[in-house]
Amino acid sequence: RQSFSALLIVFLTFFSNAADSQVPTAPSIMKALWDFYDSTNGAFWINKSGWDRSATSACGFYGIVGWDSTNKCRDFGVIDTIYLPSNGLEGKLPDNLGDLGRNLSTFLVDSNKLRG
Question: Which of 13, 14, 24, 46 has a beta carbon 3.0–4.6 Å from 88's, enabling a disulfide?
């Protein structure tokens, strides 16, 4: 019975740690956003306001939305929306776009020249 309890604790700890590793971190979110910008020719977007490499937050990035219920930017925690239709994006979507996390519910990039 004691060995079963120890095995259960190890099992639960392993899956708890595995679940934690699925939560995007601030550096992984910023890297995914900058890879998206770079791979879609961001320097030539029609509107790229706020996309500053020295930024420590994506809150001011044009086309990126992550707001809480009080209309305050959530900073790094959650990106809800990428809204960049008809903005001159051109290129291949980066492989790490999924690093933005499971809260990305809207990805509107129509009328651009993108490939998957």
Answer: 46
